[in-house]
Design a protein that fits this description.
- It is a single chain.
- With 436 residues, the chain is mainly alpha-helical.
- 56% of the residues lie in helices and 3% in strands.
- The chain is built from 20 helices and 4 strands.
- A two-stranded antiparallel ribbon has the order 1-2. It has a two-stranded antiparallel sheet with strand order 3-4.
- A hairpin with a 2-residue loop joins strand 3 and strand 4.
- Helix 15 packs parallel to helix 17 and helix 18 runs antiparallel to helix 19.
- The longest helix has 22 residues.
- The model has no long low-confidence stretch (mean pLDDT 96).
Length: 436
C-alpha cells in the first residue's frame, strides 16, 4: 500500500510576508487585492472538499456501527464471561499506571525528532532511550494545558501525574459512564464535553466548537473537520476497555459512540481497535495476541487494518526506535505526524520491541518520535494491563503520589486508587448489562 500525497502548498508564509511589506509601504489597493485572493482560495478549498472519493475504498470504510460490524472478520467477541476480580484489579492498576507513565515520559518531548531528544539527553546527562523520567526539560516554567508546569514532568519535581490530554480523555470517559451509564449515546458524549471539557485540539477542537455553536453531536465531527483520521480517537480508547475487560466487542462499541463525536472512518477505527486491544490485554500474556484480536473489531479491509497487519508482519525486522522511525517515515511520507495510522504502527512496534520489559516498551516508543506521548501512553496501557501493577517498576509511579492533575471543569485532581474503584464499578455495570 502507498499513500500518495500531493506536495505541500508552501507559498502561504511567503505570500503573507509580501502583504506585510506592502502594507508597511502603504501600497494602494492592497486590502481589495487580499480580499479577492481570499475569495478565490475559499472557492478553491470548497472545490477540493467536494471532490469525489474512491467508491471502493469508501465501501470498505463505513462510518455506521452496523456497517463496521458487517465487515469485521470472525472473532472472539467476548473472552471473560465473568470478571475475576482480583486479577482484573491488578491488571487495571497496571494499565492505568502504565498509561500515565507513558504519557508523562513522552509529554515533554512530544513530536521531538530523534536527534533533538538525543541532544537533550546528552545535555542533561540522561540515558537515551530513556529508562526513567527526564531529569530536566526545556522551558520548565511553561504550563501544559494551563495547569501543570513542564518541570512537573521531571523525576525531581513530579508530584502527581501532570496534566495532559492523553490522560484527560481517560478521565472524561469515566465521567461519561458515571453520568449516563453504559448505554450512553453520542449525544450524551457531546453533553459531557460541553460540561467538562474547556478546550481541545485538532478534531476534538473542531467538534467542541461545533457543539458550542449548537450543532448536534452526531454532526459535530463532520463539519469543517480535516482531522477526522488523526490520532485523537486513539488516545480516547482506554476508558471503554477498562470498563469492558475481556470483552473486546463491547469495548469497541463503547469506543465507537465516543469516537463518532469527532472522527470518521480510520479515525473511528483507531479508537475501536485500541479499545479492543486493551480489553483483550486484560486476559492475555502477550501483547501480540491482543494486537491481533483487536483487528477482529474493525473492517478487515480498511486502511488501518491493512497497516496494522503490515506492522505485525514486519515487526521482526524492527529492532529498535531507529528502525521504527525510518520504516514509518519511508512508508508514510507526507502523512501528518499525529495521524492515527502511522502512530498505530509505532505503538505496535514499541510493544513488540519491549516485550515484557515495561521500561523498554515506553522508552523505545518515546524514542521513536512522532506523537510519542500518545503512542507511549497507549503502549504503556496495553503493557500494564498484561503485566499488572507489579510489572510496572515503582520508579514510574512513585512520584504520582496517588493523584492525577486535571483541567476538566470542576475536577482539578483525581485520586488514582479512587479511579481504580470507579472503573471497577463501571465494569460491573457493563458486564451486568450484558447477561452476567
Amino acid at each position: 500500500m502507498t499513500f500518495d500525497y500531493p506536495g505541500p502548498i508552501e507559498w502561504q508564509d511567503h505570500f503573507n510576508r509580501w502583504v506585510q511589506l506592502k502594507a508597511e509601504q502603504e501600497a494602494v489597493g492592497l486590502d481589495e487585492k487580499v480580499d479577492e485572493i481570499r475569495r478565490v482560495l475559499d472557492a478553491m478549498l470548497a472545490d477540493v472538499i467536494a471532490l469525489p472519493e474512491d467508491d471502493t475504498l469508501a465501501a470498505a470504510e463505513p462510518d455506521d456501527l452496523q456497517g463496521i460490524r458487517s465487515l469485521r472478520p470472525s472473532g472472539r467477541r467476548r473472552i471473560w464471561d465473568e470478571i475475576p476480580m482480583d486479577e482484573y484489579r491488578n491488571r487495571l492498576e497496571g494499565a492505568l499506571l502504565g498509561r500515565c507513565a507513558g504519557c508523562t515520559l513522552g509529554s515533554p518531548v512530544e513530536l521531538f525528532p530523534i536527534e533533538k531528544m538525543e541532544r537533550w539527553a546528552g545535555h542533561i546527562g540522561d540515558p537515551f532511550p530513556p529508562v526513567g523520567y527526564w531529569s530536566a526539560v526545556e522551558r520548565p516554567h511553561d504550563l501544559k494545558y494551563k495547569v501543570s508546569p513542564r518541570g512537573a514532568f521531571t523525576s525531581v519535581q513530579m508530584d502527581g501525574v501532570p496534566t495532559d490530554d492523553d490522560i484527560i480523555y481517560t478521565l472524561l470517559g469515566l465521567l461519561v459512564l458515571e453520568d449516563y451509564g453504559p448505554d450512553f449515546t453520542i449525544e450524551d458524549v457531546g453533553r459531557a464535553w460541553v460540561d467538562y471539557l474547556p478546550y481541545a485540539h485538532t478534531a476534538e477542537e473542531v467538534a467542541l466548537k461545533n457543539l458550542h455553536r449548537g450543532i448536534p453531536a452526531a454532526e459535530a465531527g463532520s463539519i469543517d473537520n480535516p482531522y477526522t483520521q488523526y490520532i485523537g480517537g486513539d488516545i480516547r480508547s482506554d476508558p471503554w476497555a477498562y470498563a469492558a475487560p475481556g470483552f473486546p466487542e463491547k469495548a469497541a462499541e463503547l469506543a465507537y459512540r465516543d469516537a463518532y463525536l469527532t472522527h470518521r472512518r480510520n479515525g473511528i477505527y483507531a479508537e475501536m481497535y485500541f479499545s479492543a486491544v486493551i480489553s483483550t490485554a486484560f486476559v492475555v500474556d502477550d501483547a501480540v495476541d491482543a494486537l491481533r484480536i483487536g483487528l477482529e473489531e474493525i473492517p478487515q479491509d480498511c486502511r488501518l487494518a491493512q497497516e496494522v497487519r503490515w506492522g505485525l508482519e514486519t515487526a521482526s525486522e524492527i529492532h529498535d526506535f531507529r528502525d521504527a522511525n525510518a520504516a514509518v517515515s519511508e512508508r508514510y511520507a507526507g502523512m501528518h505526524r499525529v495521524h492515527a495510522i502511522n502512530n498505530a504502527v509505532l505503538t505496535i512496534w514499541g510493544l513488540t520491541i519491549g516485550g515484557s520489559d515495561f521500561t523498554k516498551v515506553i522508552g523505545q516508543t518515546v524514542a521513536m518520535s512522532y506523537d510519542n506521548d500518545c503512542t507511549a501512553a497507549t503502549a504503556g496501557s496495553i503493557a500494564g494491563a498484561i503485566l499488572g501493577r507489579d510489572g510496572v517498576p515503582e520508579h514510574w509511579w512513585a512520584g504520582f503520589n496517588n493523584k492525577v492533575h486535571s483541567y476538566l471543569n470542576g475536577h482539578a485532581v483525581f485520586a488514582i486508587d479512587d479511579l481504580v474503584d470507579r472503573f471497577i464499578e463501571q465494569a460491573n455495570r457493563v458486564v451486568g448489562d450484558n447477561g452476567v
